[in-house]
Specification:
Chain A is of the alpha+beta class and 170 residues long. Helices cover 29% and strands 32% of the residues of chain A. Chain B has one domain. The chains are: A alpha+beta (170), B alpha+beta (173).
């Protein structure tokens, strides 16, 4: 008799636990907003911000959680297929934005100034600059008059960023 | 005196130059897209709608914004892990009823068509260094809030680049 009571009690407990587990599984939110995704996967390694109505800044962080790569470009889909709508920013605006997100004091002394070199390939072109703490590169559209900027990238050269900016060594 | 001045300049620079996620959010508001490391070699990129919920997701091998590993194997998607992540972030109940194959303009010829569900479109993306290898999986949400975002594949923009077609004599008497 006592054995039957114990068995019934155990069965009841198992059912209650299974029910609770099922409830928890259903109650755990499907991570589809920033808060839930942070809770499940931790801090993101890349974030994109709208810094002007039609211009975005994408930041990739290093292991020290500080910015290693900054990418400024006209707003377009962050996740996109092959058909990419290009855009452009005026040279003046892009240089203003460069000084806003990585002022000359932060970049350090120039060892190779921006626009001291330029490469061209049909309509596409570019220029890069090297400073004490950062490298800056601009992707240019040479077929527009005046020349416009399609992308601007800053990569910081501190040790915590080496893993992300390895290509510089190649 | 110089030390104090130098210290003040350093403090001022730290205050005005964003460096961390909190700094950027204080200056520019919440991010409209993020990328999470969901497995050691796998990332999940998410683009949010104006309501703050995901509108597009992509699961792909982990690479820097600047640097892609030279080995082609690194850009191939580990399918089992990617499927696990897909089920975590877009489980069957979120996808809704499967509607069959869909059509996305601009995919590589020969690639399998996307799968349409009631609430999402799931696209297997091929390319990178090995065009026949699965390189990423994208999820497009069909919520009305997602319509204001720049499109995944912009057919209307592509059409606008085409020269206007000549009208046939039959249609222009």
């Amino acid at each position: 008799m006592q054995g039957e009571v114990q068995q019934a009690y155990t069965r009841g407990m198992v059912r209650a636990l299974l029910g609770f587990a099922a409830f928890l599984a259903l109650a755990a939110p499907v991570p589809q907003n920033s808060f839930d995704l942070h809770a499940r996967y931790g801090e993101p390694d890349v974030q994109r911000f709208a810094i002007r109505p039609d211009i975005t800044l994408t930041v990739e962080y290093g292991d020290d959680h500080r910015a290693c790569i900054l990418d400024i470009r006209p707003r377009q889909a962050f996740i996109q297929g092959f058909l990419r709508r290009p855009g452009s920013i005026s040279k003046e605006t892009s240089l203003q934005l460069l000084d806003e997100v990585a002022p000359p004091e932060v970049r350090g002394k120039d060892t190779m100034p921006l626009f001291s070199n330029q490469f061209e390939s049909s309509c596409a072109g570019g220029t890069s600059g090297i400073s004490e703490h950062a490298q800056v590169s601009l992707g240019l559209n040479l077929c527009e008059t005046p020349v416009t900027v399609q992308s601007l990238r800053v990569s910081f050269t501190r040790p915590a960023c080496e893993r992300l900016t390895k290509w510089i060594e190649h | 005196m110089r030390i104090v001045a130098g210290y003040l300049i350093a403090v001022a620079l730290m205050a005005v130059t964003p460096e961390t996620s909190d700094d950027y959010q204080a200056r520019y508001g919440k991010p409209d897209a993020e990328r999470f490391i969901v497995r050691p070699d796998l990332v999940l990129s998410v683009e949010y709608g104006p309501d703050g919920a995901a509108c597009k997701m992509r699961i792909e091998p982990r690479e820097s914004l600047l640097y892609s590993p030279p080995s082609s194997t690194n850009s191939m998607l580990p399918v089992d892990e990617a499927t696990q992540v897909l089920d975590e972030v877009v489980p069957a109940e979120t996808r809704g009823k499967e509607l069959g194959p869909g059509k996305i303009f601009g995919q590589i010829a020969g690639a399998p068509p996307p799968t349409e569900y009631e609430n999402v479109t799931i696209i297997q993306e091929f390319g990178g260094s090995k065009p026949t290898a699965l390189s990423s999986v994208a999820v497009l949400f069909k919520r009305p809030e997602c319509e204001s975002l720049p499109k995944y594949s912009d057919l209307e923009w592509f059409k606008s680049l085409m020269p206007p077609s000549k009208q046939s004599p039959a249609s222009n008497p």
